[in-house]
Please model this.
Amino acid sequence: MVENIRSVQSGQVTESASKTSTTKGSAFAIAPMIDWTDRHCRFFHRQLTWHALLYTEMVVADAILHGDRDRLLGHDAVESPLALQIGGSEPQKLAEACRIAADFGYDEINLNVGCPSDRVQSGAFGACLMREPDLVGRCLAAMAEASDVPVTVKCRIGVDEQDPEPALDDLADAAIAAGVTTIWVHARKAWLQGLSPKENRDIPPLDYDRVHRLKQRLPEAFVGLNGGLTTLDAAVEELDRVDGVMMGRAAYQTPDRLAEVDARVFGAAPRPVDYAALIDTMADYAARHLERGGRLGQVTRHMLGLFNGMPGARRWRQILSDGAVRPNAGPQLLREAFAAVRLDGDKRHAA
Model:
């Protein structure tokens, strides 16, 4: 279930959004990434941005129905606004998964229509669903009927030999007909044959203009852009053309940039990162995780890129990578690694 753990950095827990077509925080989101955006990653990211919309990894509907629900769906209340991304292609199962998720306090439930992995292909969901917009519509309608929070969809511009013009329009129209008016678009095709999931993130060319045309065609819908956004400058520029932007690997690999999101995207007052407080928060969080039987590396692996480009960043990564796998590794390792980072006084302890 949701655990009410409050952050030293934020000092607040965001209230869940009411059921509207757009989730609070949607102007900037951190993309759902399998093996990356787990609950420890999200807790860490929330220390850097209070307002961005966070996403879970994709959780398959069958797993929610039959698996360990606390492990799959549990999260800390401080992560809100938080969206659960679900994978599946059977309306009844997706609807039941939404009902189960209701007890866990998510702010949004998102249907994955973009993942090209072998796993989703064998299960005929994810990006495969780009070929079946009518089925997507039935899935979304069932989810929306079962959910008390907004239901959204994240898709590609097409798959394989599809023409992105009708493919994306058909998918979007099916979503809107189902009552779902928030559409996140990864602005690349997915090639289900011939490219690995990793290659599908880089090789198919980006087509932002196709997403812009969708927004122009559907001015009343929320259209968000995902794919290839590596800088906050580029993301902010896109907000002149679409309603929301989603950053993935760049946010994960260089998380420090997230500290600017609240001011530049949401109009909040600039808030310098108090790195000492951040490390203390994450050390306390890691201690609680260890008390529950977890391992230190499950927390620290998401923090390796925090000081990228700063003096001492290599030593920070080395201490955490080598030390977290040792028997009895404890949260003090974070403070030891932080001591190796050479920051000036203003950056080490923000006012």
